[in-house]
Specification:
Number of helices: 2
Strand content: under 5%
Order of helices and strands: HH
Structural class: mainly alpha
Largest sheet: none
Oligomer: single chain
Number of domains: 1
Amino acid sequence: MKIEIDSSDLQKIYDALFKANSYFQFRDHMNATLHISATRPTPLASLIEAEKERLRVILVENKIDTTQDH
């Protein structure tokens, strides 16, 4: 069986695989970082907390309801 894929489809596949791989690397890195931060704060953990707070403020200021299912 032969499957023909044009170059734009191939690029989409590569992009999807790259994004998935990046996501899993990021997730694993975050899990490791958050695990470390439970015992001693790291600069990255502090940045994450600051970013979460900044996003929370934006949501509150714009009265965006995060409890709704979209």
